[in-house]
Specification:
Distance between the termini: 47 Å
Strand order of the largest sheet: 1-2
Order of helices and strands: HHHHHHEEHEHEHHEHHEHHHHHHH
Strand content: under 5%
Largest sheet: 2 strands, antiparallel
Number of helices: 19
Radius of gyration: 31 Å
Number of strands: 6
CATH superfamily of the largest domain: Fumarase/aspartase (Central domain)
Shape: elongated
CATH class of the largest domain: Mainly Alpha
Helix content: 55-70%
Number of domains: 3
Structural class: mainly alpha
Amino acid sequence: MWKGRFHAEPRLQILRFTQSLDLDWRLFEYDIEGSVAHVRMLCSVGLLTEEERDKLVEALREIKAEIARGELPPSIALEDLHLNVEHRLIEKLGPLGAKVHTGRSRNDQICVDVRMYLRDQLKELRVKTRRLLNTLLELAERDVDVIIPGYTHLQQGQPISAGHYWMAYFWKFLRDLKRLDLAIYNTDENPLGSGALAGSTLPLDREFTRRELGFSRNTENSLDAVSNRDFMLDFHYFASTFMVHCSRLAEDLVIYASGEFGYVELPDEYCTGSSMMPQKKNPDVLELIRGKAGQVFGHLLDLMVTLKGLPLAYNRDMQEDKRGLWAALATVHSVLDILPGMLSATRFNQERILQSMRDGFILATDVAEYLVMKGVPFREAHGVVGRAVRDCFDSSRTLFDLTLEDWRRYHPAFDEDVFEVLDLQRAVDRRRTYGGTARSEVRRQLERGREILRELD
């Protein structure tokens, strides 16, 4: 390809080091479709005859089928996918095959290949993310009447509806869906025709290839087009925040499924056992989701560090941009394939959960706010209830054990209606502030969530 400039051929060792076939061979369908669009455009502007166009398109289709059948193994002597395809085209058509690269550089060629491939992948991920969001809505509706402890610092704080818990993750993953939509939008640009860096002196019609390849718009600057990997970063941002949320959810469920908590029962088909300890039911799937999150974060950082010191426009460092991209795509796909089914089959153990709240201390804030409604300043009310909790600890009693006489020893504002406050279900339903855990609010969130998903479709 560049023999005219060099006196010697690259050593085999160098060819092995510089080849990109392990990264770009998977793009063959997109590479050939890009070439077909390019050939048709060349014909439309008079750089190829119709006969030449038809022969090139037919041969490109044949090569695509050969690769799909495994009949055209990649050669590292040809360095990358593009040159392997072009070499085979020349084998088939002679000098005509060499015309396929007219007005094109591998710089804009790889950009269009990756953008088309990634666009399809992101659309698949969107369908799967949407399925996860639907699953969370179903779980929130199913478990709206289940009461669980809400935690801060992994200490019981206030009672909440389990539906509220599931909706918390719905809103997190909904933000991920919006980040994914931004990545799809930014990927959907046609770079073909940008050339190596400055466009072309030939009368290329970029609008023609844009339409042929289904892009919504053309890139605006050739120098930016071949150096831009922001669209990949947008995917990595989505993937990273998505895995943050998956990891936090996995951590919750690992804890809640432990013998010490026993709040949830995980489905057997998503767990494994121990090679030594017969009693074990290990949440391996959740642990692997948690463990894989760090790898995805690393791929984001990897690309950012690669790009941060590169001068415009293209540099060979950018060949490595796909290694982390493929890995992150595979991880996110695998998690989205597993998570909805696992969550749907997970059940809360309400009896065990209620037992964990039997001391009533999770209602301490409700009692303090009861006093506030009686006109007691909150800070004073906080101290009053804190002393009651401390005394219950010291005497091995619960808040449910205290009589009206006991309560009045702490403050004269207590009356018979304090016992209405000491009810878990009422405590949940009293939290009717917008976005709160009251069942009425959870149902409002459910309707709002469904409405937003309809708007995003």
